[in-house]
């Protein structure tokens, strides 16, 4: 038996440097999570082998494809699905990130519904299926990840009905009223695709229930709180809140190079209170709301001037999608405005980094940060908040109630990202607590993360999937 993982991205991505291609570790929650637990996955599924199918992160010219294929297979058990520039535009930047992402994050006015992009989405899902089918045997397990590959379960079951297929959605599933805004053929094809999986996983109960209610509203089916019954088939759904490699973050402080960097940063920040934020560039992360709150905080609490430093890290993402470019411009101008308004010759309130940071730079920031400010307007889980508490149990976590993480990290300072005044006041309250008080407050969350780490997540999903009986007849809904 083999385990096959399919995700849009492989754990590495190719970068062109002059005439050569080099591979770097992919950023992002999914890859971080899965890479950390591949050993455990093999153990619990009793798989002899595993393969990872995904896009290698760059348009690879045809002449180089064979070489890249062999290299990835040999070094990482990874099988690349090569996508052309046009496929990347219409599939990835198009239907995935200009249709599904805004709809699933409840930003319907940002969504475009283009038939040619949807057709490319179907074709790319077929391409992934063809790659998977080349190596899939009847007794294999296939774990499909995220909104890029929602049609893959259908294409697999049609050819190999005995393969156990699991699907995990890393982003929210929206309420029916929002999902329904997608044209009929798109929304029905998407649901039919996912419903061909044997187990469908979500981060929270709310997303799971949104999914079940949506399926019930669009098709007449039977269901209970977890299961959907169609044509004599039982499709399981369940809640698996993703987590982190707890020890990696919790023990990072002991590493000499991290310790050294934290000391250097403390010096540079002149021992001011540091409020950190780290997100991919995305309107769903509420970075603009956060900046409004920072401005309000500085206005309302002048005693913090020169005593606080906001480190805002924004990681480049989906450049080329119009809404992302607009969001970036808005963030740039707001930071300029706030710094222009409050800076003095020897102090600027916001230190802004628009770049990807290596782990050795990211973790010292977690440890340095007296507070982490998460203001997402919608966020499947938000791993940054979990990593922060693991790395810095004496820090203040200010967390949007609109993240999946708010379900797990209940002792955080919970805020609503639209309540600008409320965020400013919470920030003041959080910054006035001592490290000891925060350590006490965070204890339950630290324990929770220790017990519920990434291994627990992968184990729970794959154990439940292993217990399913493969549904042999693919579903075609009318
Ligand atoms: C999606 C969902 C869900 C970030 N910047 C750097 C960096 N990162 C790492 C973090 C963390 C991951 O990327 C980000 O994960 P998040 O969960 O916060 O957000 P998304 O990327 O939007 O992830 C999300 C997740 O999938 C998992 O299901 O939680 O809701 O949107 O691990 O550490 N890592 C490095 N440098 C950076 O600059 N090295």
What does this structure look like?
- Its EC number is 2.4.1.15, 3.1.3.12.
- Keywords: Glycosyltransferase, Hydrolase, Transferase.
- In the C-terminal section; belongs to the trehalose phosphatase family. Belongs to the glycosyltransferase 20 family.
- GO terms for molecular function: alpha,alpha-trehalose-phosphate synthase (UDP-forming) activity; trehalose-phosphatase activity.
- This is Alpha,alpha-trehalose-phosphate synthase/trehalose-phosphatase.
- The chain is α/β, with parallel strands linked by helices and 478 residues long.
- It has helices at residues 29-35, 38-45, 62-76, 85-104, 115-135, 152-159, 176-179, 184-195, 205-218, 246-250, 256-268, 287-300, 322-342, 359-368, 383-391, 405-408, 420-431, 435-451, 454-467; strands spanning 2-9, 12-17, 20-25, 49-55, 78-80, 141-145, 164-168, 199-202, 222-223, 227-230, 233-239, 273-280, 308-315, 350-354, 371-374, 396-400, 413-415.
- Helix 2 runs parallel beside helix 19 (454-467) and helix 12 (287-300) packs parallel to helix 13.
- The radius of gyration is 23 Å and the shape is globular.
- It starts with a strand and ends in an 11-residue tail after the last helix.
- The structure holds GDP-alpha-D-glucose (GDG).
- Residues 27-30, 32, 170-171, 242, 278, 280, 315, 356-359, 362, 379-384, 387 line the site of GDP-alpha-D-glucose.
């Amino acid at each position: 038996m083999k385990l096959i993982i399919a995700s849009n991205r492989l754990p590495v991505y190719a970068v062109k440097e002059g005439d050569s291609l080099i591979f770097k570790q992919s950023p992002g929650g999914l890859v971080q999570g899965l890479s950390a637990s591949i050993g455990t996955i093999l153990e619990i599924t009793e798989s002899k082998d595993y393969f990872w199918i995904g896009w290698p992160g760059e348009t690879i010219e045809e002449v180089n494809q064979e070489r890249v294929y062999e290299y990835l297979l040999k070094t990482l058990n990874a099988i690349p699905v090569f996508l052309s520039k046009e496929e990347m535009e219409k599939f990835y930047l198009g239907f995935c990130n200009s249709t599904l992402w805004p709809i699933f994050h409840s930003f319907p006015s940002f969504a475009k519904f283009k038939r040619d992009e949807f057709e490319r989405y179907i074709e790319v899902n077929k391409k992934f299926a063809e790659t998977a089918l080349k190596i899939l045997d009847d007794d294999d397990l296939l774990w499909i990840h995220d909104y890029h590959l929602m049609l893959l379960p259908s294409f697999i079951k049609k050819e190999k009905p005995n393969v156990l297929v699991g699907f995990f959605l890393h982003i929210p599933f929206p309420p029916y009223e929002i999902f329904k805004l997608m044209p009929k053929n798109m929304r029905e094809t998407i649901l039919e695709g996912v419903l061909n999986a044997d187990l469908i996983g979500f981060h929270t109960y709310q997303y799971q229930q949104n999914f079940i209610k949506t399926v019930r509203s669009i098709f007449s089916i039977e269901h209970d709180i977890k299961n959907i019954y169609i044509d004599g088939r039982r499709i399981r759904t369940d809640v698996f809140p993703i987590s982190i490699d707890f020890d990696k973050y919790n023990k990072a402080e002991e590493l000499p190079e991290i310790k050294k960097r934290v000391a250097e940063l403390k010096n540079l920040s002149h021992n001011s209170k540091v409020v950190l934020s780290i997100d991919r560039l995305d309107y769903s992360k509420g970075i603009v709301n956060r900046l409004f709150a920072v401005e309000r905080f500085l206005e309302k609490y002048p005693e913090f001037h020169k005593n606080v430093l906001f480190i805002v890290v924004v990681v480049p993402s989906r450049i080329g999608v119009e809404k992302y470019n607009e969001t970036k411009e808005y963030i740039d101008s707001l930071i300029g405005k706030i710094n222009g308004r409050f800076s003095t010759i020897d102090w600027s309130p916001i230190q802004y980094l628009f770049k990807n940071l290596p782990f050795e730079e990211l973790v010292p920031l977690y440890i340095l940060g007296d507070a982490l400010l998460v203001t997402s307007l919608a966020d499947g889980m938000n791993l940054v908040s979990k990593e922060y508490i693991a790395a810095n149990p004496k820090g203040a976590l200010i967390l949007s109630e609109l993240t999946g993480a708010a379900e797990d990290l209940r002792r955080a300072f919970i805020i609503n990202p639209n309540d600008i005044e409320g965020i400013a006041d919470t920030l003041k309250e959080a910054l006035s607590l001592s490290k000891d008080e925060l350590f006490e407050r965070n204890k339950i969350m630290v324990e929770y993360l220790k017990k519920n780490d990434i291994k627990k997540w992968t184990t729970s999903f794959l154990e439940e999937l292993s217990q399913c009986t493969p549904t042999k007849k693919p579903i075609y809904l009318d």
